[in-house]
Design goal:
By secondary structure, the protein is an alpha+beta fold. Helix content is 23%, strand content 47%. Helix 1 crosses helix 2.
């Protein structure tokens, strides 16, 4: 229902005058239509202005981008001449399309190829696509052919790149492939670094680096070690990802590597690292203390190596080392006492197997005979089904809980120690017990000799060794 513009009374749509105040309702309708028409007119004008600005911006973006593209091409040519003169090599830099988008502060170059060659060696680096993002101010300087005095932030991304090196006199070859390389910098770099590199220490710096799909290609490995060993080497020369964040804090004088990660089908490694220093010049920096592996996680899986007839074939299903500590800081001093950080440590090994045949088995028999006095033809199959070593340290106390399940020995080891952190060897043993629940027949002569020397160490079918005193001179409980 409409309302009277004079008194606000509700009126009917077909009424010409307000029943309350007598206002002419037809003039209200005319004003409303006029206001609606004005609104539409100004809306169209506003949209037209916006469209014009966008079109002009798009045209300017294309124009400036084209100008910068020409400048980038000239810079690449200039760098070719610089490499040739500085390194005394023949250098070639080829590239495909260059696209510059000033609006998004991005430069893209496709099919980049750098070749350097002389009479001794050849080096080639190819990039499927190179992307660079920097500040709009830097793009303007490139556009106006002016030098860039400083960089505060930029990022570089390389898609499908590969590096190859070949020596013409030693016939050696090395190749390195990347699915993706990305580098992001946030800090302060300037031309003054050429005169004074110590400027790096006066500012906070942050560098984020990621490599994905890393593959090393070194044919000499197979020639040197054979195909079996080369397969093992490949497990540690191909990676799904290598990444880290390197940072510098100028106030606390600290370098950090955070989120350091290495992973592939057989390896998964994560940790952190921090180093504090003193000094104001790079050549005179002195580490004060460091922090390593406050969150350390290393996993190795599905790996085998060696030859059963040579020195033995070894295989492992899983190995994991993990720490989780509050602080792992040690004074950087050769003469300083070792410190035990508070936190947890865990070691787990599953499915470790040793296969010995022929000459390898004979060498193992000789080792048992001459080193341990075990004369036997009954060589046990060496396999660790499960090994766990766990300890944690808190409030000057260390608690240890370990277990071994294998074909040659089954045992548990537990401990409860009051720590003397200043003099670790003087720590007091509350409980330290090794319990052997089963062992292979090959060890029976050794056990009998041990029993004659130590006395009664049995608890039923188990062998139990309990200690007291200090770690410096532990005593066996009788």
């Amino acid at each position: 229902m409409p309302f009277c513009s004079s008194c606000g009374n509700e009126v009917k749509e077909d009424e010409k005058y307000c029943s309350n105040c007598g206002n002419n309702l037809s003039s209200d309708m005319s004003n409303a239509n006029k206001n609606s028409s004005n609104f539409k007119k100004y809306s169209l004008m506003f949209l037209g202005i916006i469209a014009t600005i966008l079109v002009l911006g798009f045209i300017a973006n294309i124009y400036i981008g084209n100008q910068i593209e020409d400048e980038v091409s000239a810079i690449i040519s200039e760098q070719t001449r610089f490499i040739e003169s500085e390194l005394d090599v023949d250098a070639y830099i080829n590239h495909g399309d260059i696209k510059v988008n000033p609006m998004f502060r991005e430069i893209n170059v496709t099919d980049v190829s750098l070749k350097m060659t002389n009479s001794y060696e050849d080096l080639e680096y190819n990039i499927g696509e190179l992307s660079v993002k920097t500040s709009y101010d830097n793009l303007q300087k490139i556009f106006n052919d002016k030098p860039i005095e400083e960089l505060n932030s930029f990022s570089i991304n390389l898609e499908k790149s590969n590096l190859s090196y070949e020596s013409n006199w030693s016939e050696s070859y090395f190749g390195l492939d990347f699915d993706e390389v990305s580098v992001a910098f946030d800090g302060h770099l300037s031309q003054e670094l050429e005169k004074d590199p110590n400027i790096l220490l006066y500012n906070d710096q942050n560098l984020n680096v990621t490599f994905k799909g890393v593959k090393f290609n070194i044919p000499e490995f197979e020639k040197m070690y054979g195909s079996a060993e080369a397969d093992i080497i490949k497990k540690f020369t191909n990676y799904d990802e290598i990444s880290f964040i390197l940072s510098h804090n100028s106030d606390s004088k600290e370098f950090k590597i955070e989120g350091f990660k290495v992973s592939n089908s057989s390896l998964d490694f994560n940790t952190d690292l921090a180093i504090q220093y003193k000094g104001n010049k790079l050549e005179y920096l002195e580490p004060v203390n460091f922090q390593v592996g406050s969150n350390f996680d290393f996993t190795l899986s599905d790996l085998s190596w060696g030859n059963a007839y040579d020195y033995g074939k070894f295989s492992i299903d899983n190995l994991n080392v993990k720490t989780n500590s509050d602080v792992v800081v040690k004074q950087y001093d050769y003469y300083s006492d070792p410190s035990i950080p508070e936190g947890e440590f865990n070691l787990t090994i599953n499915g470790f197997d040793v296969d010995l045949k022929g000459r390898a088995e004979q060498d193992y028999q000789e080792l048992l005979r001459y080193e341990y006095g075990m004369v036997t033809n009954d060589i046990p199959n060496i396999k660790i089904n499960d090994l766990t070593l766990n300890y944690y340290v808190k409030n000057n106390k260390m608690v240890v809980d370990s277990k071994l399940d294998s074909t040659i020995l089954d045992a548990t080891f537990i401990g409860d120690i009051n720590l003397n952190k200043q003099y670790f060897n003087d720590s007091t043993i509350n409980q330290l017990k090794l319990e052997i629940t089963d062992y292979h027949d090959v060890f029976k002569p050794t056990v009998r000799e041990f029993e004659r020397a130590m006395g009664d160490i049995r608890d039923g079918d188990k062998i139990v060794l309990s200690f007291k005193g200090s770690l410096r001179s532990p005593q066996l409980k009788q």
